[in-house]
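Lab channel / #folding
Pinned by the channel admin:
"Please post every new chain as: sequence first, then the structure tokens as a reply. Keep commentary short and put observations after the output so the thread stays searchable."

First post following the new format, from NK:
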Amino acid sequence: MQQSYIFAVMKYVAEINVMPHKNLLDPQGKAVSGSMAAIGLPQVSNVRVGKHISLEIEALNENEAFQKADEACKKLLANQVMEYYEISIHSI
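Reply from TO:
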């Protein structure tokens, strides 16, 4: 008699922050930093501008969801030569 297994696929949200490497020039951040005094915020400096990406992922567990988000970052979402990324996973 053959046994069959049913695996519950769960939904997860991957929150991804992509930022320029700290040792690289950030032209957008520099422009924003330069504008802070003009809007009355001279205390703000060294701005770094990145992007935030949110993905819904179907996976068997949190580890698999993380691996899929990591693969998406490596293949599409981040330029690893110029950027680094951080991933956090939450179940829905």
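NK: The radius of gyration is 19 Å.
TO: also worth noting, The mean pLDDT is 95.
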